[in-house]
Every structure is written in C-alpha cells, then in structure tokens.
Design goal:
- InterPro entries: Diverse_substr_monoxygenases, Luciferase-like_dom, Luciferase-like_sf, NTA_MOA.
- Belongs to the NtaA/SnaA/DszA monooxygenase family.
- It comes from Paenibacillus agricola.
- This is LLM class flavin-dependent oxidoreductase.
- By secondary structure, the protein is an alpha/beta fold.
- The protein folds into 2 domains: 10-166 and 200-289 and 362-437, Luciferase-like domain (TIM Barrel, Alpha-Beta Barrel); 296-359, no CATH class.
- It is 39% helix and 10% strand.
- It contains 14 helices and 12 strands.
- It has helices spanning 38-50, 78-86, 105-118, 147-165, 223-232, 243-259, 281-292, 297-306, 334-347, 351-359, 369-381, 397-412, 425-428, 437-455, and strands at residues 10-14, 55-58, 93-99, 123-128, 193-194, 199-200, 215-218, 235-238, 268-273, 276-277, 366-367, 387-390.
- It has an 8-stranded parallel beta barrel, surrounded by 5 helices.
- Helix 11 crosses helix 12 (397-412).
- The radius of gyration is 23 Å and the shape is globular.
C-alpha cells in the first residue's frame, strides 16, 4: 500500500514596502523608496527563489489620504510589478491583490490569465473585497457596500472568473502547421454568465497556462470570509500566529471546506510572521527596539486609524485605556479591527500602546534562528498552519536573514524542500490540477454512453 506523502511546509515572501515597520524606510540599509524600487523588489524575489520559497506576495489598496502612512502613498500596482518579476525569476510563484468590488471581472480574468501564461503557470490572485470607505469614490461610487453584500459580490466574482478561465480546454490550441489547424473550436466555450451582480458573455481571449488557471487566495477572517474561502479558495491568509487561535482557525476553515466536499489538503492556511533574528535573544530584541524607535506616536495613530475607516483617534487621551469603540470597523478591515479591539480590552492597553503595537508589530518570532524554526515547526506539526508569509521587519535584511539562517534549519529537519520539484505554483503548493468544467462534461457524457455496456453481466 502506498504511504501518503508527508506534509511539507510552504513559505512565501511578503514584498510590499520597505518592511513591516511603517517607518522602515528610515533604516540605514533600506532603500527609502522601497515600494517603488524595482531593484529592491527584484532582489527580494531572487532571495526568495534562491531559498526555494513557494511564492512572493504583493498587497494593494487604491485609496490614500494625507494621513496615510508613508509606504501606502506611492507603490506599484500588483500586475505591473509581478510581470516585471516574472522576467527575472523562473520558479517563484507570483501572487497579487485584485479587488472584487471595483475591478471589472473580464479585465481581471484576462490580466491574471496573461500573468499566469507569461510566467509559465506561476500566478496567484488574492481576492479582496476592499475595506476602505473612500476607495469607492475613486471608482465612481459614493460608498462601499456593507460587509455581507461585498462578500456576496466576491463569491459571484470568483465563480465568474473560474468560468472565464475555462473558456478554452487545455488542448484547444492545436497549432498544427502541416494541417493548417490553429485551434479546435469545439474546445472553445462561451460562459454567458448572468448573475445577481454581473453579466459577462465571454469567452476569454487567453488560453490556459501549464497550471490550468491562477491559484485563488482569500484573506477574510470573518465568518463570511472563511465561508467564501472554504468554498472557492486554494489558500487563505490568516491573521494570527498565536497557537491556540491559529489552531481554532485552521480547524474551522478545514471543516467548512469539507462541507463543500473538499479535502483538507486542498485549502492551505498561511499566517504572516515578522521574524527578527539575532545571534542571541538579546540581539534580536535590540534590533526590534532600534527599528521601533523610527515610529513616532503621530504616525502610529495614523496607521491604526486605517483599520477603522480613518476614524479620528486624536480625540482620545493617549495614555488612558482605549474607550469602547462599539462596532467601529465593522464595514472596514473587520477582522483586523476586531482583533485590535480585543487586544486593547484583554491587555488593558492605552491608545498609545495599541497604536505602537499596531505600527511596530512584534509578534512571537523574535529570537535566534533555532528558536524561530522551533516555533514554526510546532505550529506546523500541531496543524495550526500549512505555511507562513514571511515579512521582513526591514528589507532586504529581514528576508535575507530568514532565508540564510532559518530556511537551512527547516531543510535539515525535513520540513521544507531543498529543491523545487515542479515548475508551477500549483505544483509547489501540491494542489490538484483543476479540471475544466467543459472537459469534465465531455468525459461524463462519454461515460454515460458506455455505462449500459459496462453494466451488462456479459460485458456486451
């Protein structure tokens, strides 16, 4: 009997900005223009690929104000920078954020399919519903839909894109020069989608990539977000690496996926971590304190307000416990806002303390390389995570330290690959190849035609 293949840890690199600290651009070894510095982004992607990471991830948002934190003010939109990185990498997956609330489905489907094709099957899509109220005003609307409606839109949007990506069966493009046959039009299919929110005819003018279609990621931690991910996503970005919270989240999402007839390994859970590595714990702590000193309280307050629809926190005393904020944030970054409110209440934090905690994330991954590897291994082996999004506290130092010091330990322990075993992102993540719905229909019809013969006692 064939033994099941042992689980392997998955790793991704968070490329956005100069680092996880909102003032990381001030670090002496970090380019001050990190979010729009092509050289830095190439360096980070190549560090990740050399370390055999599964993918690199670019986050995005389409709204800023004068009170926005520095690295939101000017940054590459994902498709542009990921296309550039596709040309200087050969194995690394390329995942970017695209909104389901304001981007036209056909356009998004075509853009992502193009990235997937030109990269040889390495594209992924982080499907977000957009959480900042004034994003809507950049797209001709007055306000965001309420949280529940945004997720209904997202569910239809993702299903629609998958339908467009099935426009061409895998072997439709014959390109037979001798016979003069470019394509088999019997394997072209028009979607004709007419739903509650969208009407899209199709078909898509882009053939499938070697991985079939882009990998779908989702980042919502609310019930609506988890339900959408369980049904449609290949992977989900979780927002906690606390062992108990992470295990509960992991179990919840996997159970929801099972309710849709999916196997647990068909949806992967990735929390983000910010490792700060030192030769000793004390050295790692000093690194954290040095970079935290770059952030003044005014910047920290601005950063915190982003998760609460830019609520004016300056009206509250800095050094008193945070007042009850009620349902503030329910239609913004809902799960993140709720997490900050819960943190403030449970730890009796002042506004100053909460803002600095948000702007200079410390987390549980500060210490020696062995200590960080131990914590990652524990979370992985106790089924709290399938992998991690690694965000350097400052870039490129943070990612390079992790790649050079922690990854070899994970490899020595047999937890992480030493070489890529496939070419596509789907292969890296060990996810099943998606069967084109029209190919599946064709196979089912064929089986129905031969079933009577197969079921006859004489075999015919």
């Amino acid at each position: 009997m064939t033994q099941p293949k042992p689980r392997k840890l998955h790793l991704a690199a968070f490329l956005t900005g100069a680092g996880s600290n909102v003032a990381a651009w001030r670090h002496k070894d970090t380019p001050s223009d990190g979010p729009v510095n092509l050289k830095l982004n190439i360096e980070l992607a190549q560090i990740a690929e050399q370390a055999k990471f599964d993918f690199a991830f670019i986050a995005d948002s389409a709204y800023i104000t004068k009170s926005s934190t520095p690295y939101f003010l000017s940054r590459f939109e994902p498709l542009t920078i990921l296309s550039a990185l596709a040309a200087v990498t050969s194995k690394l997956g390329l995942v970017g954020t695209f909104t389901t609330s304001f981007s036209e489905p056909f356009t998004t489907a075509r853009q992502l399919a193009s990235l997937d094709k030109l990269s040889g099957g390495r594209a992924g899509w982080n499907a977000v519903t957009s959480a900042l109220e004034d994003v809507a005003k950049n797209y001709g609307q007055e306000k965001l839909h309420e949280h529940a409606v945004r997720y209904k839109i997202a569910a239809e949007y993702i299903e629609l894109l998958k339908g467009l990506w099935d426009s061409w069966e895998d072997d439709a493009f014959v390109r037979d020069k001798e016979k003069g046959i470019y394509v088999d039009f019997d394997k072209l299919h028009t979607l004709d989608h007419k739903g509650e929110f969208f009407s899209v005819k199709g078909p898509l003018n882009m053939e499938p990539s070697p991985q079939g279609r882009p990998i779908v990621f989702q980042a919502g931690a609310s019930d609506a977000g988890k339900e959408l991910a369980a049904k449609e996503a290949d992977a989900i970005f979780s927002n906690s690496s606390d062992p108990e919270i992470a295990r509960a989240f992991y179990k919840d999402v996997k159970q929801r996926a099972a309710a849709y007839g999916r196997k647990p390994e068909e949806i992967l859970i990735f929390p983000a971590i910010t490792p700060i590595i030192g030769a000793t714990e004390e050295e790692a702590q000093r690194k954290y304190e040095q970079t935290s000193a770059y952030v003044d309280i005014d910047l920290a307050i601005k950063y915190l307000s982003r998760f609460f629809s830019f609520h004016d926190f300056t009206q509250y005393p800095l050094d008193e416990p945070l007042p009850d904020l009620g349902d503030l944030g329910k239609d913004s970054f809902k799960s993140t806002a709720e997490g900050f409110k819960r943190m403030a209440k449970e730890e009796n934090l002042t506004l100053r303390q909460l803002a600095l905690r948000a702007a200079t994330p410390k987390g549980n991954f500060i210490g020696t390389a062995v200590q960080i590897a131990d914590k990652m291994q524990h979370l992985f082996e106790t089924e709290a995570v399938d992998g991690f999004i690694v965000y350097g506290y400052v870039q490129p130092e943070g990612l390079r330290d992790f790649a050079e010091q922690v990854v070899p330990i994970l490899q020595e322990r047999g937890l992480f690959r030493t070489e890529y075993e496939g070419e596509t992102l789907r292969e890296h993540l060990e996810l099943p190849y998606p069967v084109n719905r029209y190919t599946k229909e064709r196979v089912n019809q064929h089986e129905q035609q031969i079933d009577p013969v197969l079921s006859h006692p004489s075999g015919g």
